[in-house]
Amino acid sequence: MFLSVCVPHENLFNSIAVDIVTQNITRSYDFLPQDRVKYYQIFDHGHVVHVIVMSKQLIVAGIELGGTGCKVGISNEKGEIEERFTIETITPDKTLTLLYNWLSEKQKQYNFKALGIASFGPIDLHQNSDTYGYITQTPKPHWQYTNVVGAFKKLNIPIAFDTDVNAPAMTETRLAGGRITTVVYITIGTGVGIGVCVNGRSIHGLLHPEGGHLKCLKFPGDNYEGNCPFHQSCVEGLINSKAIADRLQIEPSKLSTVPDDNPIWNLQAYYLAQLCAAIVCLISAEKIFIGGGLAKRTVLFTLVRKHVQQILNNYIQAPEIIDHIDEYIVPSSLGEDIGVISAFDLAQEVLKKE
């Protein structure tokens, strides 16, 4: 195992001698990331020192199954992405076969011990259900009632399954190191999903959170009817990539060429802010992370924060909302790697249960 010391201010010590249990360990320690760690408090010269014990992790595989694209990776012993593979999400058979074949080949090389799958939804998370591990009533054509978990059973390893938003919410909670316990992760792209993690556990309940399908107030002058086949003018139906592209009369693949000062982004932020405000009121989230293809546009965060404050209108008297909203509604701390790394975390969790 690795050993490090984290102190309140790094300049307090150049090196420190530490006794742990019965092992006398004396050396200079580097400062290491405060994730995947256990904390033990000791005192030295009146200063509280956190002794961090980091254990090597088992190598696992992870899949981020998105509505537009899929990413699969193999971890190293630090939980980082050692090798990865990316494909477009096409038909279920072709997509899952490509992912399985890549993993099957890499299993010979890496001997990974478990697989985590973070999938777009809705999905069936009830393990006693006949359709556990399936994507169910998704708006995505051809993917209704697709057996995702079953496609990887021949790997003969434990498989963990959750949504592509619940898994990142759990990982962001872990990365916060205990500072926050109620986290929401929103993705905006082909669809709009939300994941909720409370006290380190994702929320399942009847199904799993589906906040992207909440109805919302229309933006003044917005005549777009929405494209959700179930609810038409819900958040997803009004701000997914197709909805934004339809208003601009372009293909979704061209959205990256639209300038930041185009009014469409303020319209999108208006609807997304209604979802964020509902999350604040219903869940009392301590932090909201936003990811997905459309979240790469940083101006969107500025606009969303402004609209959230206007919607809440000082009703929620929390400094995170009133004074520090730039630190409250934020991009994922892992950027585009959040999906695969959160799938690694799912795999590590299922190994703990074995």
Number of helices: 8
Terminal Cα separation, in Å? 22 Å
CATH topology of the largest domain, which one? Nucleotidyltransferase, domain 5
Radius of gyration: 22 Å
CATH class of the largest domain: Alpha Beta
Q: Overall pLDDT, averaged?
A: 86
Number of domains: 3
Detail the poorly predicted runs: 1-54
User: What is the CATH superfamily of the largest domain?
Assistant: ATPase, nucleotide binding domain
Largest sheet: 5 strands, mixed
Strand content: 15-25%
The structure class reads alpha/beta
The CATH architecture of the largest domain: 2-Layer Sandwich
Silhouette? globular
Query: How helical, in percent, are the residues?
Result: 25-40%
Strands of the largest sheet, in order across it? 8-7-6-9-12
DSSP summary, beta strand count: 17
Helix-strand topology string: EEEEEEEEHEEEEHEEEHHHEHHEH
Organism: Didymodactylos carnosus
Family: Belongs to the ROK (NagC/XylR) family.
Catalytic activity: D-fructose + ATP = D-fructose 6-phosphate + ADP + H(+)
Enzyme class: transferase
